[in-house]
């Protein structure tokens, strides 16, 4: 069933015309990739789906309830968001940062239980952060900090992942590790919806793609039908060379 | 937060002990020293008439006023720092003390009594809060950055008015005004108002601690983790402003406590607001009680403005902790 039902949605990007409304259903177990050039509105779309910015028109329905009718807490118990940017104004350790993923499940007077700490520890292991757990997040490298963000989302145990460039700053090994992690989340029944810059990661790991053109035009569908070189060349305004590795298309800028 | 959780209880208990010790010291020390036995005698309803009078109507109210003011300021500072996501924020950063000072100095200038000075300080603080908030609202709602900028500029405006008033004041009124500006507890006789605000404020902020931890990660991340960001920010802003207004009304604008106490504790205990907020109240109260005791004893019979002592004690301690931290 559809966990995210997007109805006639127009994302509110100031100073931009409406463009084409989005009607799309995201189901459990699907891996959606959003592709588009800089400024096409990928992040704004993701934030709108998370309820972090109101849409200009249309609505998003989360597991049968309109997003606007749910409290932030109810949303956060189902949806985890991995942001591209984060604020580390105050010192905090990696463990503390990952553990705040349990916030939506705890009442005001409750402290984190042994189980919450176990969730956080599992998330740290899944992202090979065990050795860093007492480090201050402000001292981490960009890639390490990115993995901490993903671990926080994993600690939230979401049924829907909204991830903005989850492989940002990651080296090749960790890019694959993170994509495998999200893949496994989808196998376990979560819906994964992510913005990606890397066509090749999208081609290898996504089963559905949404293409956002800068003029507000859009198209989406199963990944095989979307990975048409001509369409992608128009999307990025860039010539592409296409190869095949292990049956998966590989795109290189021409 | 397993590591900080282990440190939480001993730290809070230790600070409570220090606080009680500071209060005891403040009641015992002064122009006439009172021994522990005599203190005990007065506490149990006996003791000499002089000691009774000294403790019940002078030293105890003043010590309690100092403790509550310190607690209010440190709590307000810790809240402002989280609200503005800015470690440099203190209770006065949004111009509250400036507004209060203009009110208080205005009352002094026309020769008003203690009640009028306190009343107009409180009115000035609230006026400044509303002014800053209204201006920061602007088109399209307020953001912490906008709030901070508006507050800093309004504070600068109040600063000019204060300087103007000082220049225009007759010489015999000047010392009183300068003492008020540095923070002064000599006239604090009724600490009950401050305690009536401080205790509910602590009880209110305790269950908010974890939400504030999440808010410190920025508004988007906080919203994604289930925080209703705007209502929480409103609550924190109103609460911190009220705490500051009450503190300023009790003791004038005592500096440094609101800025350095939360930071000192963060350096020692980490940044879990569930610990930092109550610890700030205890440490802020202790610091100001000790500082006030020193202010009225080191140069007795002269009394120094307590703000001088908080700065002299606080600045080196803070710099030492900062230097030592990783």
Itemize the secondary structure elements and their pairings.
The complex is a heterodimer of chains A (254) and B (326).
Chain A: E1 2-10, E2 22-27, E3 31-35, H1 42-49, E4 57-62, E5 65-66, H2 72-76, E6 79-82, H3 94-99, H4 114-126, H5 142-155, E7 160-164, H6 172-187, E8 191-195, H7 199-205, E9 208-212, E10 218-222, H8 223-226, H9 229-236, E11 240-245, E12 248-253
Chain B: H1 2-28, H2 36-43, H3 49-83, H4 96-109, H5 114-137, H6 144-168, H7 174-182, H8 192-205, H9 209-215, H10 219-224, H11 229-251, H12 257-269, H13 273-297, H14 306-324
Helix pairs in contact in B: 1-3, 1-13, 3-8, 3-11, 3-12, 3-13, 4-5, 4-6, 4-7, 4-11, 5-6, 5-11, 8-11, 9-13, 12-13, 12-14, 13-14
Structural commentary:
The complex is a heterodimer of chains A (254) and B (326). Chain A has 254 residues and is an alpha/beta fold. Chain A has two domains: 1-78 and 158-227, P-loop containing nucleotide triphosphate hydrolases (Rossmann fold); 86-156, no CATH class. Chain A is built from nine helices and twelve strands. Chain A has helices spanning 42-49, 72-76, 94-99, 114-126, 142-155, 172-187, 199-205, 223-226, 229-236; strands at residues 2-10, 22-27, 31-35, 57-62, 65-66, 79-82, 160-164, 191-195, 208-212, 218-222, 240-245, 248-253. In chain A, strands 6-7-8-3-9-10 form a six-stranded mixed β-sheet, with helices on both faces. A four-stranded antiparallel β-sheet of chain A has the order 2-1-4-5, with no helix packed on it. In chain A, helix 4 (114-126) crosses helix 5 (142-155). Chain A is globular and about 55 Å long. The model of chain B has no long low-confidence stretch (mean pLDDT 88). Chain B has one domain: ABC transporter involved in vitamin B12 uptake, BtuC (Orthogonal Bundle), CATH 1.10.3470. Chain B has helices spanning 2-28, 36-43, 49-83, 96-109, 114-137, 144-168, 174-182, 192-205, 209-215, 219-224, 229-251, 257-269, 273-297, 306-324. Helix content of chain B is 76%, strand content 0%. Chain B is mostly helical and 326 residues long. Classes of the chains: A alpha/beta (254), B mainly alpha (326). At the A-B interface, helix 2, strand 6 and helix 3 of A face helix 1, helix 9 and helix 10 of B.
